[in-house]
DNA sequence: TTTTGAATTTCGGGT
DNA sequence: ACCCGAAGTTCAAAA
């Protein structure tokens, strides 16, 4: 990884055009060729970047750039698309290179897939006597997160979200419309389950006869006997 | 901006849990407090990060971390949420600080808004004799990108995308269903316009009687007399 | 301030 | 390889 802190201007041309006026920024060149240009604020997203595979050419500024005071120009071109990044350097404050090696990678825990696994294992959270039919029950319009059977034997479709929003209710509604056309499953009721359910979504769901279920991930994780195995 | 290259392990706990095993990485601390942890590959997205406002505490490792060889521990806590990042440093390879100043910011050109403006100005790209009714024509289910009238006086609804995908066709279909219920507008035909239209989207669109229009942004920009004013 | 939709989205899983 | 959907989405603009 090469780290360059320098006063520079940047132009990107590809899927869009973008221009960065002259200022001091960090230019990061990763081992795989990625180029990232960061300012000293904002978020984790760089101001500009290029993804590999690419070619990086360090050259002399063209006439216009030189007239404006550029002393070095990097031309970064994507090997696959016609994206191009041009960095005109005016002065360098820092330039260092480092060997980092490959990263073992991030281990995540607590995403929707985990919620789904936990809810399938603790299916009675839906209500006493509920039995799991299956996860990711395929339909023509996509997979229903969880299909279950309640104590009375009626089918229950569960839409699972980390954050329950209107579109999740719409999604479940479409599934319910479809599933209720199947005489073998009919009648199918719906449960909208999420860690957090927005008031609007709750109102819409209940208006459509869909039950809402707020999930406590930490509690569910506590019940799960495999909890903590990652750390 | 502070740049630290060090062998470290990282734990994040917040909206999810995540763990990074011991490896050499770049830890970037921006002037606004943001902390970014980058590996030497991947994309522009850091492995872990924390957004401001936050507090950064440099302390000594706890017993467990020290036993594993940690010599310094950073605790980064969000001031607003309960997100927390813990970095256990085992050895430092580089540590430098730099004054960058505020960034003048990025100037973009060529996003969907530009496309829409250009297409509205060059409405005859839809076909000879087309007239603009209005941009962002509001309906109960959202704004239609462009509403126009063709040479015969029939209404035309345009859905505009940078990259034309199935969901864009679905969106336009919903608009057309709605607009065709309005006796004042009926009959309304649809045009799906995008810089790139995926084959599946094109097939679906044409199957529904929606015309597809591929837009050449550079050509449209060339026609626009305000082109190039940004640079 | 909340909400809505785009993004040079990225990223991962499945087919 | 493409397709689909989640994301600690982030981000900006509009309501």
From TrEMBL, chains A, B:
Endonuclease NucS N-terminal PH-like domain: residues covered: 2-104
Protein role: Cleaves both 3' and 5' ssDNA extremities of branched DNA structures.
EC primary class: hydrolase
Keyword annotations of the record: Cytoplasm, DNA-binding, Endonuclease, Hydrolase, Nuclease
CDD domains listed in its UniProt record: NucS-like
Amino-acid biosynthesis is among the record's keywords: no
Known EC number: 3.1.-.-
Domain named Endonuclease NucS C-terminal: residues: 111-226
Molecular function per GO: DNA binding; single-stranded DNA endodeoxyribonuclease activity
Keyword Mitochondrion belongs to the record: no
GO cellular component, one term: cytoplasm
The organism of origin for this protein: Glutamicibacter ectropisis
Main location: cytoplasm
Compartments it resides in: Cytoplasm
Family the entry assigns: Belongs to the NucS endonuclease family.
Descriptive protein name: Endonuclease NucS
């Amino acid at each position: 990884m090469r780290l360059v802190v320098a006063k520079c201007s940047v132009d990107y041309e590809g899927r869009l055009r973008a221009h960065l006026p002259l200022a001091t920024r960090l230019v990061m060149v990763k081992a795989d060729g990625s180029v990232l240009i960061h300012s000293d604020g904002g978020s984790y997203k760089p101001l500009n970047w290029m993804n590999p595979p690419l070619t990086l050419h360090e050259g002399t500024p063209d006439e216009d750039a030189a007239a404006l005071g550029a002393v070095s120009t990097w031309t970064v071109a994507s090997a696959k698309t016609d994206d191009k990044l041009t960095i005109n350097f005016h002065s360098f404050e820092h330039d260092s290179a480092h060997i980092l090696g490959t990263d073992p990678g991030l281990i995540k825990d607590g995403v929707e897939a985990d919620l789904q696994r936990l809810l399938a294992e603790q299916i009675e959270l839906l209500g006493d006597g509920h039995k799991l039919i299956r996860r990711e029950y395929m339909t023509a319009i996509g997979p229903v997160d969880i299909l279950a059977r309640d104590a009375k034997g009626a089918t229950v479709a569960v839409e699972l979200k980390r954050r329950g929003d209107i579109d999740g209710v719409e999604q479940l509604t479409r599934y319910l419309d479809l599933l209720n056309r199947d005489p073998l499953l009919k009648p199918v009721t719906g449960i909208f389950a999420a860690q957090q359910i927005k008031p609007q979504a709750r109102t819409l769901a209940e208006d459509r006869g869909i039950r809402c279920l707020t999930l406590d991930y930490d509690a569910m994780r506590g019940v799960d006997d495999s909890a903590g195995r990652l750390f």
